[in-house]
Model the fold of this input.
Amino acid sequence: MIHAYQIAKHGEAFTETNLEMEALGAHDVDIEVAYCGVCHSDVSMKNNEWGITQYPFIGGHEVAGTVKAVGEQVKHVKVGQHVGLGWHSDYCQQCEPCHSGDHNLCGAAQGTIIGRHGGFAQVVRAAASAVVALPSGMDLSLAGPLFCGGITVFNPLVQFDIKPTDKVAVIGIGGLGHMALQFCRAWGCHVTAFTSSEAKAQEAYTLGAHDVINSTLPAELAKATNTFDLIISTVNVELDWNAYLATLKPKGRLHFVGATLEPLNVGVFNLLGGQKSISSSPVGSPATIKQMLEFAVQHDIKPQIDVFPFSQINQAFAHMEKGDARYRVVLEADWK
Done:
């Protein structure tokens, strides 16, 4: 029997509950949750914004904790080891993406909080293939947000072979963007932050930006024409994407990791003339997550977090939904 926090019905608050765990499978790992980040995807699932939530709902897919038990076929992690778990809890291991190492693109991958209980619990279970050991020197309290937000902004640097000499811009300085600036700076790139908030301009410099552009001023965008090799958009709102395309160099890429809700209003001629691209990506594979964690430790990259005890989970969600988080919310185990 384990404790967890669940939403019993749509529209209700989180309440504590007890769960019975089934027998551990041969390829499974049980993680005793020490910390679990709260991601905007948890909010979307809590509110059934995507129409796939199953109630009772137990969210949490930015898990950091200790291995409690392993199945008999598990070899790469051991009881007592610090590990993490992100958006996926299992992969089919049979499809072409899995065979190519792109597990995050597996069409049959199982979401940690879709049809199963996530990390808002004392213990969360996942297939061993989805569990990644934390590198030595990683602060357990900071690890969780890297397993979703961190890998989401790190993955494009790997997938598109971004070079240290490239010029990269980040749209939005928030839960994703504040980590993107740090990763891109450590990658060796010249980094520019696009922000509509004057208050965040100085903070963007502190996080790694070489330059900051006020995206509300068309003249500022115009000055950046033909500047960037890559723009990473972390926002979920509609912007003048054609204006941003103009700031790309020939063969430049506008890449979306924020789930923009409205269709993109883009003129094809704004792509065609400079052979420019628009793309998007989800989280990364376990191998890329491992690389990202090691890179983060090596370069002292840390998400900025607001910590709440699990017993204040409803206050934590309210804090994030009001936009008060700077910049990620993390729940800390305080089970009695």
